[in-house]
Design brief:
The chain is an alpha+beta fold and 234 residues long. The protein has helices at 2-16, 22-39, 43-65, 68-74, 81-100, 145-162, 193-203, 213-224, and strands at residues 105-113, 116-124, 169-175, 182-188. The protein has a single domain (2-222), classed as Trafficking protein particle complex subunit 3 (Muramoyl-pentapeptide Carboxypeptidase, domain 2, 2-Layer Sandwich). Helices cover 53% and strands 14% of the residues. Helix 3 packs parallel to helix 6.
C-alpha cells in the first residue's frame, strides 16, 4: 500500500511541478554529445565520459529531488533482500518517470550467497514512448545509455548515503547490450568484491568491458566522496 502511495505522490509532483520537458532535455543532451564527439576520438572514450558525467548529474539530481523520509518509506529498515529489491524497482521506475514522463519496467532478481545478497535489476523503457536520448544521432559504437547508467549508479549510492546505509550496500549500473535499457546491481558489503564481480559478469558478461569497476569507484569517489570496493589484485 505504501509503495502505491509513493508512486501516486510522484505522479502528483510531476503534474503540479513538472520537470524539464523531454524536448529541451534532448536538445541540451545533443549539444553535450556533439562536444564530446568533437573532443574525443573513440566510442569507448565517449562512453566512459558519458558514464562519468551521468554520475555527476545523477548525484546532483538525487540530492536536489529526493527526500530521506521518502526513501525511508521505500527501503526496508531490516535490509531484507526481497524488500530491498522491491524498493529498487519502485524508485528506479519513479526516477525514470520524473525525467522521461513514462514508467519503464524494472524487473529484479535476488541472488543469495553465503555472505549476503546481490540484487540484480533490469530496466527497460516503454518502446512506444519518447525520452531525452531516444533518436539522438551518435557516432557508431557510442551507447547513450552510459549517461543514464552513470546517473543511476550515482543516485543509488547517494540514496544509500542519505539513508546512512552506504556501509551496508554498494551499487553499479551499465547499459544493456544491443537493446535499450539498463542493468544494475545492489551488493551487500559483506559479499567479497571478487565474488560480486563474478556474479555480475555471469549475469552480464559485457558489464565491465568499457567502464571498469575501478572507473566506477573513481567517479563515485570524485563526485560523491563515497568508496566502493575493487579487487585487491587490480
Amino acid at each position: 500500500m505504501k509503495e502505491a502511495l509513493v508512486e501516486f505522490a510522484a505522479k502528483l509532483q510531476k503534474k503540479f511541478a513538472p520537470t524539464v520537458h523531454v524536448l529541451i532535455a534532448k536538445l541540451l543532451f545533443t549539444m553535450f554529445l556533439g562536444e564530446l564527439q568533437t573532443r574525443l576520438s573513440s566510442p569507448e572514450e565517449i562512453n566512459r565520459e558519458l558514464h562519468k558525467y551521468g554520475v555527476w548529474i545523477g548525484s546532483r539530481c538525487m540530492a536536489q529531488l529526493a527526500k530521506p523520509e521518502d526513501l525511508e518509506k521505500i527501503h526496508p529498515r531490516d535490509q531484507e533482500p526481497h524488500k530491498v529489491a522491491r524498493g529498487m524497482s519502485l524508485y528506479g521506475r519513479l526516477a525514470w518517470y520524473l525525467f522521461a514522463g513514462h514508467l519503464p519496467t524494472l524487473e529484479t532478481e535476488v541472488i543469495e550467497t553465503e555472505n549476503g545478497a546481490v540484487i540484480k535489476g533490469v530496466l527497460k523503457p516503454d518502446p512506444e514512448k519518447d525520452y531525452f536520448i531516444r533518436g539522438v544521432v551518435s557516432m557508431k559504437g557510442v551507447n547513450l545509455f552510459y549517461f543514464t547508467s552513470g546517473a543511476y549508479e550515482a543516485a543509488a549510492q547517494m540514496g544509500f548515503q542519505m539513508l546512512n546505509i552506504d556501509n551496508l550496500w554498494w551499487s553499479v549500473w551499465r547499459p544493456l547490450k544491443q537493446e535499450e535499457g539498463l542493468v544494475g546491481f545492489y551488493i551487500w558489503r559483506k559479499v567479497p568484491v571478487e565474488k560480486a564481480v563474478k556474479i555480475i559478469e555471469e549475469n552480464a558478461p559485457w558489464f565491465f568491458e568499457t567502464v571498469s569497476l575501478e572507473d566506477s569507484a573513481k567517479y563515485l569517489k570524485e563526485y560523491l566522496g563515497v568508496s566502493i570496493p575493487v579487487p585487491q589484485s587490480q
